[in-house]
């Protein structure tokens, strides 16, 4: 079968892949200094090994036999951002990475004495770096607590004379914060936090105190992110309402069965991903909350996110329904029907174009990241909630690529461009407006300054939009799914192991298998006569 129109797109795809490889895999060629990039720590020990180390430590504390454990990957997000923003990565790696690891395992344990602990374990060496016992006992008199806290420093091999005890925080009378007199990383002072309740130490944790200036800067950036996310939600809800209204108005000429399978697939995959993210939701729940009540909060997150997914499914369904009539009114055919003789062939061509577009998009995104890093000081903080180490089954992660592609292409491309094309009567604005709305939702990732992510995703949205107008919905859907599948599969492969590498390759090939399967199935149905004759 001849696949027309691939010459220019093929050349662009090759350029995109070369650009992606150069920027990401040969950084020494194009980056002036990679020493300030802080990559996620590759664990040298398994979660099972970390749990065993934590159990042994708790037994040494006299906590009793462990009944249950749960392990999550944790990280000091604020500190990871600070040392990158201030170009301190090299100094951190040279002097403090083994003393105060930014990345670590947090093991939650319950003993046969109904005691609850969390124990932080170094991901590379397996040693315990901090711990806490759940206790509701009151803080002892300050002087008594100080003596117990100083004794815990000595027991940990630290010299209390090297530390200054900071004034107490009235909101945390049980805590004693010891700041090292000389050890600093930039303006971040090395501290050891000790908690004393009743007549015993209940927490011991070393950490760097991020300067107030950086903390305030990040807080301001996060507020901007929240505002952008809110604007995305408002705009998306309004678009969803418009889709419902238009679907009702044009109901007589809409095939409501179209898109039902896509939306069902989106919802199923999203719900699977939400369940898979239970450990990740625990890390979200631990931010500013009781670290011993994260399981209940994480279960609540799963329920809420499942409800959000259901609402997104409704919005996606009506976006596909209403989009049909809007494109018909404008005389454009951007989504072939199954019953059309050319559906199978167009799906196959759309899949092939999807791979080429995805390769081009990877190159564009890499270039945008490179420019943002080199010219605008972009950096990414740690996000345990987005780590594959906080998935119950990391092997399922790339399936989320299809969920994102289906919902976002339905809402922001198939319906969004049609809606604004009809209202503003300008193709550029019709592509730009939903691209900005789409980009607003992507600023929630911990990439700073936040405007860099807004600009990057808006540009990608414009490219996706014009690709959609030129090649149709199927090509745009495949391109989005393939691009995300590649990125997610590369993350899976980075975890190491032959199984993860093989699965990553399978996920990258999955869109091709789906395209070929649909083509073959269609040959057995409505399109068999047309395809046998060579197609239109």
Which SSEs are present, and which pair or pack?
Elements: H1 7-25, H2 27-30, H3 47-60, E1 66-75, H4 77-85, H5 89-95, E2 103-111, E3 116-122, E4 128-133, H6 142-155, E5 163-165, E6 175-185, E7 188-197, E8 200-209, H7 212-249, H8 260-276, H9 278-285, H10 294-329, H11 343-376, E9 379-380, H12 400-424, H13 427-440, E10 447-448, H14 450-471, H15 473-494, H16 498-523, H17 528-532
Antiparallel strand pairs: 1-2, 2-3, 3-4, 4-8, 5-6, 6-7, 7-8, 9-10
Strand order of the largest sheet: 1-2-3-4-8-7-6-5
- In DSSP terms, counting alpha (H) and pi (I) runs of 4 or more, how many helices? 17
Coarse shape: elongated
Q: Can you give the helix content as a percent range?
A: 55-70%
* Overall mean confidence score, pLDDT: 91
Quaternary status of these chains? single chain
Number of domains: 3
Taking the alpha carbons of the first and last residues, their distance comes to 12 Å
Uncertain spans, ≥5 residues at pLDDT below 50?
529-536
Class of secondary structure makeup: alpha+beta
SSE order, one letter for each helix or strand: HHHEHHEEEHEEEEHHHHHEHHEHHHH
Major sheet characteristics: 8 strands, antiparallel
Q: Could you tell me the number of beta strands?
A: 10
> What is the radius of gyration?
27 Å
User: Which strand-content bin applies to the residues?
Assistant: 5-15%
Question: In words, what does this structure look like?
Answer:
The chain has helices at 7-25, 27-30, 47-60, 77-85, 89-95, 142-155, 212-249, 260-276, 278-285, 294-329, 343-376, 400-424, 427-440, 450-471, 473-494, 498-523, 528-532; strands at 66-75, 103-111, 116-122, 128-133, 163-165, 175-185, 188-197, 200-209, 379-380, 447-448. The protein is α+β, with helices and mostly antiparallel strands. It is built from 17 helices and ten strands. The protein folds into three domains: 37-128, no CATH class; 135-210, no CATH class; 233-527, no CATH class. The strands form two sheets. An eight-stranded antiparallel sheet has the order 1-2-3-4-8-7-6-5, with helices on both faces.
